[in-house]
Amino acid sequence: MKNGVKICIFLVAVLCCVCGAVAQDSTGLPIERRMLFNAWLFLPAGSYYASDWVHEGPAPALFPVTRRMLLPGTNHYHSSGWRLTACRTGTSAGTGQNVNFIPPLSYSAVIQTNWQASLQNTLDAKIESPFYPEGIGTLYFDAINVSPSHPTEITVEIATNMLEYIYLGGGVTNVMYPVESEQFSNNWQVLDVLSLNAASSNDFTRYQRLLQCRTPARFRIRRTGTVHSGLISLDDAFTAIDNICASYPPADVVMEKPAVIFEPAYPAAGQACKVRCEVSNIGTNNNELTGYSNRVMTVWYRWRYLDQMSNAWQSATMSYVAASGVGNGELYEAVLPVESRVGDLEYYFVCDFQGYRYRHLESYANPPYYYTTEWLSPRTLRSDTVAEGGREFYTRLRPYPSPYETVWMVTGPYYDENPIPMTLISNDVWRGMIPIANV
């Protein structure tokens, strides 16, 4: 039998960076970003009726029975922003002799089954997340169809902006507010549609979706597809959901070539030069901020001579330029060794950095699964191969030094509008030839 199905779907990541954040994997998340449902063991502790929760709706049939049971209510609201609609809590493991559930890591006298949310047999069933002003790094949850003979379907959606109805008549906006209103509603976009057809509890689906959404967002998981008819109640053909986690976006950096990359600006053979790179943050949230104290910049370089032969790649550690910026606009530079021959200096940059990154715990369900860290370091800045003709970044080394890129010569009325280009022939010496007619 399968030990769980893992879905990993990745979106294009946005480049960013972090300051003063932790320098190791973080496995903790607040309740608004982690819903495990096991806090609802209300039989011994009464936590199901804690003040953070509001439960509405009738109790299930045959309530109460044992710890392997569904709990009262079909709509549930948590003070952190979680909303469960047409959904039973507790566990559906006791609803029949041959049912699926998401198995816990271990069993005990207190935890006989893994407590989870069970979406009822209706298309109104859904779980909506709180509002995340920092965005979402990666979304995780476990899911399974409770009845092996009744496959189910769920759709995962995200909202990062809203629809406006008073002035735009339902048109799309670029704003995202914490709550909906008569004027604004969430603009839901589909991330994935999951078909759940597990034959046993060992076949539950582990969902993992890398989003790297660094703007305000929320998500929802809702029943879609077929609603099974002819069943006794909505408490049949459940879809069980558990271990929902929405991580903060991890630390990341964006690197750019500054306006003046080299010093001197136009490197020459036989002359040492400095090369520079600029590093900044994209985000402003605490988990996205970092700076020169936890960044290490490296430039990799090699010489490609005019006969197209090149030497091996070498590296040099770059130093932070004091007062160039803190977090954003940080300038780094390194002195490259002298090269005596004319040719091209090829180069690219690498940034190793520390900062916040989440690692999903493997101990939520059985069998355990070992998730990898969301760490994005290192990042590399290399050339656009189309713009650079398939090459790395490069600059041509001149045979002689000069602070000028080009020098033009202007003489006489004709050449005022048609300047003559000059040639660098020695150190800071340029030569131009003036055509003389009728001599």
Question: What keywords describe this structure?
Answer:
single chain, 439 residues, mainly beta, Jelly Rolls, Immunoglobulin-like, 3 domains, nine-stranded antiparallel sheet, eight-stranded antiparallel sheet, 2 helices, 30 strands, elongated
Category from helices, strands and their pairing: mainly beta
CATH architecture classification name of the largest domain: Sandwich
Q: Proportion of β residues? A: 35-45%
Specify the helix fraction band: under 10%
Number of strands: 30
In the predicted model, the low-confidence regions spanning at least 5 consecutive residues are 1-22, 40-48
Q: Please name the CATH topology of the largest domain.
A: Jelly Rolls
What about the largest sheet?
Answer: 9 strands, antiparallel
Detailed description of the structure:
The protein has 439 residues and is an all-beta fold. It folds into 3 domains: 30-246, Jelly Rolls; 254-396, Immunoglobulin-like (Sandwich), CATH 2.60.40; 402-439, no CATH class. Helix content is 2%, strand content 36%. It is built from 2 helices and 30 strands. It has helices at residues 42-45, 412-417, and strands at residues 5-10, 25-26, 34-35, 53-56, 75-78, 83-85, 87-88, 117-119, 126-128, 136-145, 152-164, 171-172, 184-196, 205-213, 218-224, 239-246, 254-256, 262-263, 273-280, 295-305, 314-320, 330-336, 343-353, 357-358, 379-381, 393-396, 408-409, 420-421, 423-426, 429-431. The protein starts with a strand and ends in an 8-residue tail after the last strand.
